[in-house]
Amino acid sequence: MTKQVHLAAHFPGVNNTTVWSDPASGSQIEFSSFVHFAQTAERGKFDFLFLAEGLRLREQNGAIYDLDVVGRPDTFTVLAALGAVTDRLGLTGTINSTFNEPFEVARQFASLDHLTAGRAAWNVVTSWDAFTGENFRRGGFLPQDQRYERARTFLQTTWELFDSWRGDEIAADQESGVFLRDPHPGAFAHSDAHFDIAGQFPVPRSPQGRPVVFQAGDSEEGREFAASSADAIFSRHGTKEAGQAFYRDVKGRLGRYGRTPDQLLILPAATFVVGDTDAEAAELAHEIRRQQVSGQTALRFIEQVWNRDLSAYDPDGPLPDVDPLVGETHVAQGRAQVRMYRDPLATARQWRELAAEKGYSIRELMTEVQSRQSFVGSPQTVAAEIDDLVQSDASDGFILVPHLVPGGLDPFVDRVVPLLQERGVFRADYEGTTLREHLGLAPLP
């Protein structure tokens, strides 16, 4: 059976993907950028737009990490505003479960789902560091197992709030004879190790019942959380073989929760470069990677593994001859990427071997390991690769991350989407109105 490809668009910024030096690079905060991006995604019949979010400005060597966006408007505000300038596009926001509270998040998402006629989605994430926690009254942080336990409880609590409204019952007004809807908000009460709340939820049941739930995390705890509770999971696996292994692993966990494989979508993030020919695209991709990893950026990246101030090193020179510092304190704060390098000494050893083999400088090495595009080629090549990965169960689709905003998505929508439609693997138009329908998920009872 031929699978349908799912496509979404990530508004970039909380990374080094964006090429700031390009004349076409626009504002990351002006509403016009969000409007252009969202309307392009909707023109391409994408499932949804995705916003990431950080709860504190990142720092490195005690200074603001200025290679990322250093400002981003509130997620709910942006998504609600985009709901007014789009009709079908799903709107997904990253909202933290470590430092927020269930009642507030449930009310905001229920409101967003009403305002957008059923297009809201929640990417549930956790925070791992005390640095971010300093922005909040509780402060501190939770160990990984407790973070995911809080996330599971947080999600269950919000579901109780969403479901507390018992629907509308039809009642007749005896004097006028007019039939009136009689909503029945229900009381809620939830008490556990993390939350002790009770009251009445003020927002009626929304068009989707509750937002579509996304999860991003590749750890054992993250995979299990997705299998138990999520409708879709983001992944970072860039090769066919790694994607297939992840796909089998996560979908294989669903049965223990009474779920079937079609109840969870696997959607890796993917960058792209489209050219008239494969050769032209490869040349353009090389130039984009060099723009994404400047000399300064390269030093900041390698510092995250070495855990040292390496600003005195020449980015066009050899790798540091000293080893990484291993310890609890780190030169980079607020960057989840630091957590990727669980064994910095082993990473440094691998990078030195690769640099020696290829003759790489620091910048050349960082360009190689940090900024490789997922899809590079002519429109025909990119469409064929995407189709192959989906049909071979390496993914159910992709969340596309362009290197420019607001116009970076346009080449894909204009040149690749029509070819996927010709292949019969991507919709020619929206068939439903809610995000659950776009994703092929069954309606909630």
From TrEMBL:
FMN binds at residues 94, 148, 219. GO terms for molecular function: monooxygenase activity; oxidoreductase activity, acting on paired donors, with incorporation or reduction of molecular oxygen. Keywords: Flavoprotein, FMN, Monooxygenase, Oxidoreductase. InterPro entries: Diverse_substr_monoxygenases (IPR051260), Luciferase-like_dom (IPR011251), Luciferase-like_sf (IPR036661), NTA_MOA (IPR016215). Residues 25-392 form the Luciferase-like domain. Pfam families: Bac_luciferase. Belongs to the NtaA/SnaA/DszA monooxygenase family. This is FMN-dependent oxidoreductase, nitrilotriacetate monooxygenase family. It comes from Geodermatophilus nigrescens. The lineage of its organism: Bacteria, Bacillati, Actinomycetota, Actinomycetes, Geodermatophilales.
